[in-house]
Each structure stands twice: as C-alpha cells, then as structure tokens.
Design a protein that fits this description.
rod-shaped; alpha+beta; 5-stranded mixed beta sheet; 2 domains
Length: 364
C-alpha cells in the first residue's frame, strides 16, 4: 500500500470511529479518545518512517494493532486498522514474527471486550480482517523479494556482459599490438641490418660505388616491403589474407631462405595463416640478428588435421650480428602467445648441426 493509500485509510477509519463512538473526556469516550490518539500516532509513524528503520516500524505496528484492537468493542470500524497493522507486519518481516505481531490485534479485542463486559464475538471479525491483511502483506513481501532477486540477477548478467565485452576489447587490443609488433619488428630489423652493412661498407670501402648503390637499392626494397607488410596487416585485420605458401615464397625470396612444402596445400583460414606467417617472419628476423649469413630452411607441412611450420638455420659464419642485442625480446613470446590462443604450440631450441630451430603446430 502506498503512503497516500495509508493516509486515506487512516482518515476513513478515524472518521468512522468518531461517527460510531463520539470520543470525549469521560468514561468509555475518554478511553476511545486515548486509544484513537495512540492509533493515529502509530499509524502515521508506520506510514512516514523510512523502511530502513525496521524496528521503529514494527513497534509502531504493534502499538497500532493493540490500540485499534482495544477500540473494536466500542467502534467496530477500528477492525480496518487491525487489518492494516497485520498487512504491515506481513510486508515487513518473516511469517512467524509477522503472525505474532498480527495476533496482537485480536488479543487486544478479547481483553478489551472482557474488561468492559461485552461479547467477544467481535474478535471473529477482527480475526478475519487480521488474516486478510496478513495474507496481503506476506504476498506483497514475497513479490518484492522476487522483484529484488530478478533485479540482482539482471544486474549480475549486465556486469557479466560488460566484463565479457571488456575482455573482448582487451583481446582485440592485444591482437592489434601483436600485428604492429610483428610488422615493425621484422621490417625495421631488416632495415637496421642493411643500414649497418652500408655503414660498415662506407667505413671500409667508401669508393665502392657499385656496392653502395646495391646496398641502397636493397634498403629501398626493404622499405617498400615494410609498406607492403603494413598493408598485409590491414588485410589481416579484415580477415582477407593471401594463401600461406604464396606469402612464404615472397618472404623466403627476400630473405634468401629455402622453402619446402609437404602435403597438398589448402586454405588454412585467416588466423592460422597469419599466425604461421608471423612465426616464419619473426624467426627470419632473429636469424638475421643472431646468425647473419647462415643457411636457412623454412618448411611448411600440410597434414589432415594440422599445419606445421619450422624454420631451421645453421650457425652464422661470423657469429652474432651487430643487432643481436637489439629489440625488447617480445618477438618469440608474442608468436607463442598467438599460436597458443589458436590451440597450437611453439617449440624453439638448438638444431642438430649447432644452429637453431623454431617449430609451430596448429590445428587446421
């Protein structure tokens, strides 16, 4: 019942009691007057005190039930207030204390009727009003509890969806970071190697115009390839990539690596294609840093339910290159993370001939 509904009910009950009993300052009229004041005060307290003050509301409902019940033998209209007290008790607390509180009204009717020597038959009507109010109050409380539970479930669901969306955003950010790293690390690494070679050539043989020109042409080609890599990264993000064997041929031709294919080539899907291509790209970049000039073999194997790519190099003829200590060391970790997210694995370790081998396997 709303606040104004309670107020209107109180006004109606008070008006009916006044008409029935005409409260005054003597005898039974004085008793009704005092009880009416207590009933009005407790009813207003129940109506306007915030629901968080549960104890205050329960005390007000108890006083309301007793005062209204005590007036019933004199003014039967007070039964309405007894029913309202039972309704408030059922809505405010669990069933056992609500029944105990609601029972105060009929008990007060019986005591009041016995004290003034009137028939206790009015207690039956009061009990009916009390029961009806109690049933309505309990129903209202259960409805509110269900509504609160549904709201809590909806809030939890919204939070879960928000966390899921946030995880998706983080995954996408990580994917973008991997693409940027793979493009920049490989392209800039190759450019750095070439520029280092040009610098060394200029220092040792500055008059060799043909070698310097060839070095510049290769540097320009690497820069052009870097732009192409950036375009391929954009295509990857759009799920539009060329066949893996085609990309590997271009990569191996540029870096002077041998390419071997095993099994009938087939489409592997954008994510698997990009992951294996990045394994080859990162491996070739690391070889250029740590074993420049070493013989390199890239092998791609197509099996029934998987695809495997291995990059094997022999020892570098001159040992580690000048860029061996460059980079942040995220390349191998990045390709491992990329491959494992797709259900595969990456193994890296020494090769039999003293070089190094990196192998990635992915379900496809």
């Amino acid at each position: 019942m709303s606040v104004w509904g309670r107020v209107l009910a109180l006004v109606g009950v008070v008006a009916a009691i006044i008409v029935e009993m005409h409260p005054g300052l003597s005898g039974a009229h004085l008793s009704v007057s005092l009880l009416l004041v207590a009933e009005v005060a407790s009813s207003l307290t129940w109506t306007f005190v915030d629901a968080s003050h549960k104890r205050t509301q329960l005390v007000a409902l108890a006083i309301m039930a007793v005062a209204a019940g005590a007036m019933v033998p004199f003014a039967p209209a007070a039964e309405v207030s007894v029913g309202l007290a039972a309704l408030g008790a059922g809505a405010a607390c669990e069933l056992p204390p609500a029944v105990a509180l609601a029972a105060l009204g009929p008990a007060a009717v019986a005591l009041s009727a016995g004290a003034v020597g009137k028939s206790t038959g009015s207690a039956i009507g009061t009990g009916a009003a009390c029961l009806g109010g109690l049933i309505l109050g309990v129903g209202r409380r259960e409805y509110k509890e269900r509504a609160d539970q549904e709201a809590a479930v909806a809030l939890a669901r919204d939070r879960a969806e928000l966390e899921h969306a946030r995880a998706g955003v983080l995954d996408e950010k990580n994917r973008l970071a991997r693409e940027i790293h793979d493009v920049l690390a490989h392209t800039l690494g190759a450019l750095s190697v070439q520029l280092e070679a040009l610098s060394a050539l200029q220092a040792t043989d500055p008059g060799n115009a043909e070698a310097l020109g060839e070095g510049l042409r290769r540097t320009k080609a690497l820069a052009s390839e870097g732009l192409a890599e950036a375009r391929r990264a954009v295509q990857t993000l759009r799920e539009d990539v060329a066949p893996l064997e085609e990309q590997l041929r271009a990569l191996c031709a540029r870096d002077g690596a041998a390419l071997e294919l095993s099994g009938p080539p087939r489409s592997l899907g954008a994510q698997v294609t990009v992951a294996l291509y990045r394994v080859a790209q990162e491996s070739l970049t690391n070889i250029a840093k740590h074993a420049p000039g070493a013989a390199v073999c890239v092998r791609l194997e197509f099996a029934a339910d998987m695809a495997a790519l291995s990059v094997t190099n022999g020892p570098g003829p001159t040992g580690p290159g000048p860029l061996a200590t460059s980079g942040a060391g995220y390349g191998l970790d990045g390709i491992k993370e990329r491959v494992r997210l797709l259900g595969g694995d990456v193994l890296a370790g020494p090769a039999r001939d003293g070089g190094w081998v990196v192998e990635a396997r992915l379900p496809a």
